[in-house]
What does this fold into?
Amino acid sequence: MTLQASASSGNPLTLNEIKTEFGGPDTFTSYRRGAGYVPNHQANASIPSTGTVSMLNFLSADKLFKPAITSGTTTQDLGIGTEYTEGYTAGSLGSTTYSTMGLSPSSLTTTTFLQLIYFETPAPPLGGSTVYGLNFKLSGNMPSWVSLVVNGNTFLPADVAFGGPLYDSGDNTTIWRWRGAAVQTLGFIGLNPSITVNIV
It folds into this structure.
């Protein structure tokens, strides 16, 4: 869970809390950003990657990537019904507090969070069924992550549709796409969905 946002004599941040969050040893210098335990997420920007580390550097720090998005919504008349889309797409739909995600606690390598959208496409009139979809997009060629949790629903890279993630060499992005019952169960993600990405 995210470490506390402020500290005082009555509510100190402790090394034990930092150890619990990041899973490291008692050596304080082990908790430099990108040095093995602390991912280079935007929320951890105040934690130095070199030099002296202060307890106060860890206020609001987090092992997980938790972008607080404000969803945008769009509708499109397909002639057979209306397609509804909700979520975040960089530069065109919604907004996010964090866009820089570390790829490993052991490096400063990052990716950019570009999209998380839920959509419903109506069934064609001559047969078929409504398509329920969730798309998650990051910059780079197949950046690695372990799980995506949206409003308590877990989505794994191994469960994506269409045989796996799709890398677009033209804009250097990778998209993971889920379809079907798991996405239908998720439903519309709401204005301020809870999003967590676990990278290890």
About this structure: The chain has two domains: 1-63, 69-198. The chain has a mean pLDDT of 94.
